[in-house]
Recover the amino acids of this structure.
């Protein structure tokens, strides 16, 4: 079965149910009102990887009423909520390039050269990246020729399948955050000004705390006035610990932060850094210094170095990723503000031209709007109207 059909089968039922996200939250607070049987979601439950179910168990002490069957329902509710956040956050892209794609199918009664030209233009405009689009067009033309397809309406499934084939063929699981099994997990956040580093730390902190982890936020962005305070506010909002000091050496702030984390039994340290790329050499030296400190204090060093990119900056974000990749070892990308762009194809361009997995995506400004990147939910969020 093609990817298009598989995803359609996975999620189609859940979106047709007219349950608002807010109502679902109500259900979570009042588990006794959860209906006994919800068979349309059976497939979704089967798709949940085992380890996520295990993580869910960590939450049990907090939500006393939920045992056995309720736990499973929680997971289902969470999945549904997550699909909804994807749907909502990708509205602009869906109404932008995806609807143009759908219109194209209606406009042409036959697959012609003009059809291919227009398709190519739509994809390039969606920030998918020129090389990815060129490869894709070659593969598509090939298939159309081999399978003698003349009807554009038959192409929509093939387009979705072929667009995402690189994602499906490998690395489906590599987008999980790595934690340090033997020591404190330190996650470093880097990226240029205003991309959403501090906000992302707030949101990830919220998620990890929800999973039962003890989280310390460390404000090592000692460069910009107010930056440390902004992180402190997030720590208060989500119930994380905090350490930060303005106008001091970032590496020494990281040192003190990790010492505190060790003494006070924290599981995860989230480090906010200054985002200035004007001077590449300085930035590289600073990150080297910070990493040296982490290496000295934590077995195996930082668990993750996440580069934060703003999706609304399009190809500019790709250039940033390439520049950062030259100066430090990046283990994952957080793509923020996808809700603010109609060109959600940038995920594909990152994959193609940077080769670093997107681990989280930002789909809005609230603490719940950061989601682990899931290619299937992403495709569904984009193409659900065509399914
Ligand atoms: N719509 C939307 N806004 C976001 C998202 N992520 C962050 N923002 C907004 O982007 C703005 C900048 O976010 P910050 O977290 O301050 O960015 P930063 O990278 O820490 O910036 P500096 O500290 O100046 O380097 C804020 O107004 C955030 O609310 C997202 O996923 N969606
Ligand atoms: Mg910041």
């Amino acid at each position: 079965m093609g990817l298009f059909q598989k995803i359609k089968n996975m999620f189609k039922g859940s979106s047709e149910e007219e349950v608002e996200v807010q109502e679902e939250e109500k259900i979570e607070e009042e588990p006794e009102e959860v209906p006994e049987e919800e068979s349309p979601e059976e497939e979704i439950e089967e798709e949940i990887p085992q380890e996520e179910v295990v993580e869910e168990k960590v939450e049990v002490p907090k939500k006393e009423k939920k045992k056995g069957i309720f736990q499973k329902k929680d997971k289902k509710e969470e999945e549904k909520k997550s699909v909804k956040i994807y749907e909502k956050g990708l509205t602009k892209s869906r109404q932008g390039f995806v609807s143009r794609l759908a219109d194209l199918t209606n406009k042409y009664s036959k697959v012609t050269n003009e059809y291919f030209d227009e398709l190519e233009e739509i994809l390039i405009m969606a920030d998918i990246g020129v090389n990815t689009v060129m490869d894709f067009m070659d593969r598509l033309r090939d298939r159309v020729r081999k399978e003698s397809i003349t009807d554009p309406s038959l192409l929509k499934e093939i387009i979705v399948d072929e667009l995402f084939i690189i994602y499906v063929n490998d690395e489906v699981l590599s987008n999980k955050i790595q934690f340090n099994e033997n020591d404190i997990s330190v996650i470093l956040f880097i990226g240029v000004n205003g991309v959403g580093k501090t906000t992302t730390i707030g949101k990830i902190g919220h998620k990890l705390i929800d999973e039962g982890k003890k989280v310390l936020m460390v404000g090592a962005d000692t460069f910009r006035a107010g930056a440390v305070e902004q992180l402190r506010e997030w720590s208060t909002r989500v119930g994380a610990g905090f350490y930060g000091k303005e106008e001091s050496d970032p590496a020494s702030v990281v040192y003190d932060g990790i010492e505190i984390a060790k003494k006070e039994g924290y599981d995860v340290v989230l480090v906010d850094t200054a985002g200035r790329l004007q001077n590449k050499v300085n930035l590289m030296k600073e990150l080297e210094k910070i990493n040296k400190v982490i290496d000295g204090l934590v077995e195996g060093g930082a668990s993750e170095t996440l580069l934060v990119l703003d999706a609304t900056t399009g190809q500019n974000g790709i250039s940033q990723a390439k520049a950062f990749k030259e100066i430090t070892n990046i283990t994952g990308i957080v793509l923020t503000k996808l809700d603010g762009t109609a060109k959600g194809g940038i995920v594909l361009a990152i994959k193609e031209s940077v080769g670093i997995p997107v681990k989280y995506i930002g789909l809005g400004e609230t603490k719940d709007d950061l989601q682990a990147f899931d290619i299937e939910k992403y495709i569904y969020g984009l193409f659900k109207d065509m399914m």
Notes: The CA atoms of residues 188 and 305 lie 5 Å apart.
